[in-house]
Amino acid sequence: MSKTKSKDYFNTDHLKANLKQRSVRGGAITIAAQSSKFGLKFGSTIVLARLLVPEDYGLIGMATVVIGFVEYFKDLGLSTATIQRREINHQQISTLFWINIAVACLVALIVALLAPAVASFYNEPRLQKITLVLAINFIFGGLTVQHQALLRRQMQYVSLAKVEIASMFMGVATSVVAAYYGLNYWALVLMLVATTLTNAIGVWLACSWRPGLPRRNCDVGSMLAYGSNITGFGLVNYFSRNLDNILIGRRWGSQELGLYAQAYKLVLLPIQQINTPVTSVALPSLSSLQSEPQEYCRYYYKAMLSIAALGMPTIGFLFAFADQVILVVLGEQWLATVPIFKLLMPAALNATVGVGLGWAYQSLGNVNRQLRWGIGSSIVNAILFIIGVRWGAMGVAAAFGLSRPLFFLVGFAYCYDQTPLKLTQLLAHLRFPVIASMGAVVILTSTSLFTFFLDNPYLSLLIDLGFYVLFYFLIWILLPNGKKTLWAMLRLTKILRPK
Question: Is 470 helix (H, G, I), strand (E, B) or coil?
């Protein structure tokens, strides 16, 4: 259990004294935790892909479109509001806690009532029971919103990491056992329930703060307004990002949706392992620097460079060796996902650095502009999906993936307007991982010919990965100022050493 007293969860002045050290150490802790979670997720993906069939994933994909949409109402953006606010108190957080609980219970009820409609929409009776069971997750999730926000606000990354790993382990273990004993798609449902329940128990053990009674006049109006903009953006963004699943499932059925959903999931899986831990560190740190423009920009660009240095080469390798990756991870029966997988790669590249949009909008309090961007981009995405679905999953993947470079330029230009951040400065920082990744892909495309003859696909992929990493760093070093920039990033590891 955390040793932080309840009153200490609201003051963050002590964090500024060694913000750089806390950020680097926090990033290392969260990345290590995320690596453990990735190992669990990756291992479960390999096992479950051999125990389940695409139809099982398609059924869960149909249900989670609706579940994920209404889940945004559980949080209402109030966790981010708690992190971003300069000063908070016990009465305010207690009031927000009970608001989250009330909304979570209401959302659970709404989802339960919508279960027959979900089954009818997809013409799939099995979805009714699946949706009813998943509705329980909202209540457990509502219990943890403010506790997790307080832990992040205080940068207690060790406690958060322990809870996340434990909940992931319980979810994976439950699903593998269930799939082994022939529960089919229910194995995926039980994974979600076990993960959420374990997370709720762990968070309450890690955070010693306990809510009091809600108060009417405790000045939470601005936090609710802030949270409403984040919720609005989340809703429109979620709708645009999941309309592809709705259209494919509705028109082409669970088999086609299963292929598309698994390809999409595998594309974003490694990026999420990078983005999630860095965001958990970057957002609280940037929020504390919002009144210091020069320090804010310096921290922001370094964080963006760090996330791109990890994410971009990952995407490049996955694109270059998509066939081998799919064969090794999912098995031969999933090779039909390879073309979809490749078409979604530009979306993965955009997602790698696109997380920086949220950092800037939310840390600077410009969530109203974030909502406007979300509405505009969602409308364009919807049009692209409606056009692409005529050609099935391939058409949707092409429409979404190939349009991402334009979204990147327009999105960051709009986000940085009227802020101290500059798009030209961002591009200058990102040139190193972009050029190094592209160069390594070109070189390794021919290098892979030397390992193609190997009968063992695991060994072949491992050798290709080793060469890819070598060429990536070599190209980076050969770029103008590349060696200096890379060395500056590596020097940050000194902070991790015990004093």
Answer: helix
